[in-house]
């Protein structure tokens, strides 16, 4: 249910509506629009007394949200949400609305040296956020599983040194507490999209969440997963289209470019594309990245490696750094057509800084 306040409703009226929603056993969620406040009342069906809310001072109308996802819907929040990643020890990067962002780096952090080298190359090539897996969801339990906390600390210090926020996949609720202190953005992998406990747990943090689409999830399922995060009070959800399973077997997955306008009609959340996992082969990555941006995505997440033949994970789809740099030039032009802009590379902070809260030195 959404309660639309009239444009001059005083704060006291908003507070009263919020208090009544709580009294009915529901959770109030405020959406401050340019002209008016909209309050979402979220809870189990049957708890809300619509007529009572409609009669309160300052309320213009009470309307049910028809979509199964509520806080993720455009009905609840009309304007594009802009999510900010970073702040603190690194610059803030905006994603959403007119802001496009490029998240790049290795699939997995294999050692500190390779991470530093790739991070520098992607930053110089135009990425503003660094990716790197430290816990890897692998099909086989005998494949490389990631280096865990050591790798996480390298990611943190590398991001700080280069002035790049870091985006790291979280796989388990038990990792959330430690990771919350160290990452700038949680990544929820395609295989975890319906790990509802994990979604709720990251929803309780205040770090942005990059939510990949499940391998066989509909847009509705995906937005309902976003709703799990939002319902816990975390507004920083960024969706990521990374390809779905179809009958086509010439590529790893099929990038569903159509999902971009579909999501943008249904939801205010930013959406980016992952051309790497969809393609599975570096030869196809630039085309898919450009197709995603042309369809209106707010950026890309892409895998890069200077020596993919030695990569422990996803080598065949990693771009060589010069190709990545060239692609970024092309993407800037495509983004301009859809009214978006990739931020220029932020200048790095002075080197040698120690972030005592994180216990890591840059
Ligand atoms: C990844 O980003 O390396 C990854 C495992 O992606 P996905 O969850 O989309 O397969
Ligand atoms: Mn990968």
* Count of distinct strands: 17
Bound molecules: phosphoenolpyruvate, manganese (II) ion
Q: Approximately how much helix is present in the residues?
A: 25-40%
Shape: elongated
pLDDT < 50 runs, ≥5 residues: 352-362
For the biggest sheet, the summary is:
9 strands, parallel
Beta-strand proportion:
15-25%
Overall pLDDT metric: 94
Distance between the termini: 48 Å
**Assembly status:** single chain
| Derived structural class | alpha/beta
- Which H/E pattern describes the elements? EHEEHEEEEHEHEHEHEHEHEHHEHEEE
Q: How many helices?
A: 11
Q: From the alpha-carbon coordinates, what is the Rg to the nearest angstrom?
A: 21 Å
The gist of it:
By secondary structure, this protein is α/β, with parallel strands linked by helices.
């Amino acid at each position: 249910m959404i309660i639309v306040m009239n444009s001059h409703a005083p704060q006291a009226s908003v507070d009263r509506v919020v208090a009544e929603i709580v009294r009915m056993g529901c959770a109030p969620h405020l959406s401050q629009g340019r002209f008016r406040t909209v309050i979402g009342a979220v809870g189990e069906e049957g708890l809300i007394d619509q007529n009572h809310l409609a009669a309160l001072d300052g309320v213009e109308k009470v309307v049910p949200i028809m979509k199964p996802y509520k806080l993720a819907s455009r009905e609840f929040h009309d304007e594009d949400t802009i999510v900010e990643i970073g702040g603190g020890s690194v610059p803030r990067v905006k994603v959403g609305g007119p802001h496009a962002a490029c998240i790049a780096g290795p699939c997995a952090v294999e050692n500190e040296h390779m991470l530093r080298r790739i991070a520098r190359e992607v930053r110089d090539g135009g990425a503003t956020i660094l990716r790197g897996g430290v816990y890897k969801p692998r099909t086989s339990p005998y494949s490389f599983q990631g280096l865990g906390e050591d790798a996480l600390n390298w990611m943190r210090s590398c991001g700080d040194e280069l002035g790049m926020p870091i985006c790291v996949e979280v796989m388990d609720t038990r990792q959330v507490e430690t990771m919350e202190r160290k990452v700038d953005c949680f990544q929820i992998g395609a295989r975890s999209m319906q790990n509802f406990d994990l979604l709720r747990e990251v929803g309780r943090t205040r770090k942005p969440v990059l939510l990949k689409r499940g391998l066989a999830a509909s847009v509705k399922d995906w937005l309902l997963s976003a709703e799990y995060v939002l319902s816990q009070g975390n507004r920083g959800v960024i969706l990521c289209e990374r390809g779905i399973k179809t009958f086509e077997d010439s590529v790893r997955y099929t990038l569903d470019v159509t999902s971009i306008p579909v999501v943008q009609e249904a939801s205010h959340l930013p959406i980016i594309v992952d051309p790497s996992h969809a393609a599975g082969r570096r030869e196809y990555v630039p085309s898919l990245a450009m197709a995603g941006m042309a369809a209106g995505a707010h950026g890309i997440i892409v895998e890069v490696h200077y020596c993919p033949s030695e990569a422990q994970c996803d080598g065949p789809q990693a771009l060589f750094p010069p190709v990545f740099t060239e692609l970024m030039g092309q993407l800037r032009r495509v983004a301009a057509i859809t009214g978006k802009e990739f931020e220029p590379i932020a200048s790095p902070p002075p080197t040698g800084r120690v972030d005592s809260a994180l216990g890591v030195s840059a």
